[in-house]
Automatic annotation (TrEMBL):
NCBIfam families membership: potA (TIGR01187), PRK09452.1 (NF006987)
Record keywords: ATP-binding, Cell membrane, Membrane, Nucleotide-binding, Translocase, Transport
Catalyzed reaction equations: ATP + H2O + polyamine-[polyamine-binding protein]Side 1 = ADP + phosphate + polyamineSide 2 + [polyamine-binding protein]Side 1
Function, in words: Part of the ABC transporter complex PotABCD involved in spermidine/putrescine import. Responsible for energy coupling to the transport system.
Span of domain ABC transporter: 4-234
Family classification: Belongs to the ABC transporter superfamily. Spermidine/putrescine importer (TC 3.A.1.11.1) family.
SMART domains, sorted: AAA
InterPro entries cross-referenced by the UniProt entry: AAA+_ATPase (IPR003593), ABC_SmlMolc_Importer (IPR050093), ABC_transporter-like_ATP-bd (IPR003439), ABC_transporter-like_CS (IPR017871), Mo/tungstate-bd_C_term_dom (IPR008995), P-loop_NTPase (IPR027417), PotA-like (IPR005893), PotA_ATP-bd (IPR017879)
Main enzyme class: translocase
Record organism: Photobacterium aquae
Protein name, entry field: Spermidine/putrescine import ATP-binding protein PotA
Pfam families: ABC_tran (PF00005), TOBE_2 (PF08402)
GO molecular function: ABC-type putrescine transporter activity; ATP binding; ATP hydrolysis activity
Gene3D superfamilies, alphabetized: 2.40.50.100, P-loop containing nucleotide triphosphate hydrolases (3.40.50.300)
Amino acid sequence: APVIQLKGLSKSFDGKQIIAGLDLNVNDGEFLTILGPSGCGKTTVLRLIAGFENADAGQIIIAGKDVTDIPAEQRNVNTVFQSYALFPHMTVFDNVAFGLRMQKVAESEIEPRVMEALRMVQLDKFAPRKPHQLSGGQQQRVAIARAVVNKPKVLLLDESLSALDYKLRKQMQIELKQLQRKLGITFIFVTHDQEEALSMSDRIIVMRSGNIEQDGSPREIYEEPANLFVARFIGEINVFDAVVKERLDESRVLANVEGRHAMIHCKLPVNSGDKVKVMLRPEDIRLEEINNGEDGNGLIGYIRERTYKGMTLDSVVELESGTSVMVSEFFNEDDPDVDHSLGQKVAVTWVESWEVV
Ligand code: ADP
Ligand code: MG
């Protein structure tokens, strides 16, 4: 059974509906990410689950128990916020022990549990230190140790890594995922960072204005976005107008894209003549040189921008129709096409995976 069930959850602030009948099941031991732009209601969902806000309607069930009207401290749920607010005058040990002491756990039991939690985040040697003697990343790890020390059923993490600088954030993403596996605790992680969501999650919920736009694995969300909003939110995309020609099989149709026939991945019920939007990720496109007099095997255009990114060489190609196409190719200096220069005429080709959105 799911460890958390949200049923028809609704919440308004100042007469404005922020969460509108949200249904969501979270599986036991899952790393679930709620991803969406700022202001879409992610924090509100976490605060409702934690019990810091009361729902206007709907039900919250945690581990089989209806907690909708139960106060926060009885919900078996802990939260790690972006600003982790350690007590500055207390040692690392006392910060982590704080919750257990509040719960009147015996001091003899507190010691091993705090040290176990600190070992989990590799900070056991730092137990006697004060927060100001730690780096930002170490302080964040103390906050996580503090949140897992009383073995909650569910840990809620609200943009918990967003305040860290890029390199540390990358490292903490890996550590947090490993910790979650080790602990077996269900994590509900909130972020507006699509890369973070893709790299950490078992499952991603993409939210927009209080609604779920898509619910799926990182691969499903990236490769088969349910709509344009999700496609645009997760990574770079090219969107083209196309006209369906015929269905080839369950998952593919033939369509006319910018005057050229293309096979397109499509499970939606579309018919011949339908106008659709199709997308193509920049990394699914290749540029081919056009020799004199040849038409080339693709859409014809001119290179307008060329950016070396280390791993990839990115281009913007302007098609004869005026449409701009973003292209991202693996950088390989032995590839003769690397010499494509600005203004050059090229054929834009693709390695299938067009997607109707
Ligand atoms: P997110 O975490 O996705 O950025 P929030 O859940 O914080 O979004 O906020 C969603 C919307 O609800 C925002 O428009 C915000 O201004 C509003 N909101 C959140 N909390 C309150 C509150 N306590 N009072 C009034 N409006 C609020
Ligand atoms: Mg928020």
